[in-house]
Every structure is written in structure tokens, then in C-alpha cells.
Amino acid sequence: MEFHPEVAHTARVYDWWLGGSDNYEADRVAAARTEEVFPTIRVTARKNRDFMLRASRYLAEQGIRQFLDIGTGIPTEPNLHQVVQEIAPDARVVYVDNDPLVLTHARALMCGTATGRTAYVEADVRQPDSILGASSLTETFDMSQPVAVSLVSVMHFVEDQHDPYGVVARIMAAVPRGSYLVMTHATPDLGPEMLEVQRVYRESGMPGQIRTRAEFERFFTGLEWVEPGLTTPQRWRPDGVQPPAGMDARVQFYAGVARKP
């Protein structure tokens, strides 16, 4: 993918919300416009990332040793490999993104343990075979062993015309029994603001298609939910007390983890 700093990119906008500095004027403009229509978007970004780290930690504790993180984003500590390799130093992580800037930072900053491995694939989730066939993946993973597939805050950037359900099904078909799908997705169900976010993204040159609970659930067809099942990011096995009821309207995402039987 060619590098176009004059056009907003989802990974760099996300970096801005998380307090990073690896972004450009177009990204900051898009981020500011989004905050105008959804003032708690930074909370949303943080709750999504916290969910990803909790889910990855949980799966490492369950014995998963291979993690495929699609839509990596610009490195923000702690990163997925740091969390899982703290539990299992031999864990292997493959990061995937379609922004060259992301992969440049990933290669420089995301270095795993001596016994584990980290690898990087520049690919577009809309072309899953370009991920599954990448040498960085096939040389890092043993595809006869379970893989945790992370698609956190990714699939709402894949519009229906690109067959999002087929994309996820293709990826999950390539991993063995005992693998897991970890996913979050923006939704219009929990407040009107996310529809405005979708509009701003499209006007800024970024794709976007938010989905309902039933549409999100469809991604998990044939998989077995991990408790507490389909929920919101902040309510999935939270550390400490349950978040207040009003938090759902501040985040407006669904989340879930499910196992391939």
C-alpha cells in the first residue's frame, strides 16, 4: 500500500486518540471532527484496547501460544506480545496492518522474547489470503496448533461490498480447532453518535460501516462463545468492579471472544 499522509488513515487517527504522536494533519483533522460528534471517542479507543489486552492475557492463560493481530495499529505500550509473552515467553505473535508507517514502527519497537517470536505482515484484511499465505506468518506459526485471531476495531472498516463475513470465515477456516476469534465492532444500537462517526469517517476518505448486534453476532457463526458471550468491551471480564450502566453509551461498541470447536 502506498503512503499518503495527506489522507486520514484509521491507524493514525486511533494513535491520536490514544495520545500518540505518529499522525499527520489529515489524521488530526479527522479525529477532531469525530470528537465533535462523539466527545467520548477517546474513551472508546481506550476501552477497546483494554479489552484486547485482557482477552489476549486470558487466552495466554488458557494455553494459547500463537496470536494473529490483524489491524495492529501504531505501537502503544503495552503491546499484545508484551502481555502474552509475560505469561508465556515462548508465545508467537504475528502483527498485520496495511499502513507502511505502522509496520515501520512495529519492526522497530515490537521485539519479542528470546524464546518467543514476533513477525509482521503488510496486508489488507479484505484480502485474507494475502495474510494467510505470507511467509512471515507461515514461518512463525505452526498452523496445526490453535491461533488466537484478533480483529479488534477492524471489521467496521470493511464494508459489505468487500464481503466482511466471508473474510472472517476464510481466516477462521484456516486455523485449527481450538482457535479463538477476538473481535470488537462499532454499533448504532447504543446511541446515535456512532452514525455520525461513520459519516465523518466516510467524508474524510476512510471506509466505515457500523453494524447491529445481530450483524455482529453473525461473524461468530459456528463458534462457541467464551463467557460472558456477546457484550461490550468494558464488560468483558473487567478487572475489578463492573463499569457503570452509562458507560455503554460512551463506548458504543460490541465485543466478544469465541472458540472454534
SSE topology sketch:
Layout: H1 10-17, H2 25-37, H3 41-61, E1 66-70, H4 80-87, E2 92-97, H5 100-109, E3 117-122, H6 128-132, H7 135-138, E4 148-151, H8 164-174, E5 180-186, H9 193-203, H10 213-218, E6 224-225, H11 247-251, E7 253-259
Parallel strand pairs: 1-2, 1-4, 2-3, 4-5
Antiparallel strand pairs: 5-7, 6-7
In short:
By secondary structure, this protein is an alpha/beta fold.
How does this model look, in words?
There is one protein chain. The chain is α/β, with parallel strands linked by helices and 261 residues long. It is built from 11 helices and 7 strands. Strands 3-2-1-4-5-7-6 form a 7-stranded mixed beta sheet, with helices on one face. Helix 4 (80-87) links the parallel strand 1 (66-70) and strand 2 (92-97). Helix 1 packs across helix 2 (25-37), helix 2 (25-37) packs antiparallel against helix 9 (193-203) and helix 3 (41-61) packs parallel to helix 4. The chain is globular, with a radius of gyration of 17 Å. The model has no long low-confidence stretch (mean pLDDT 88).
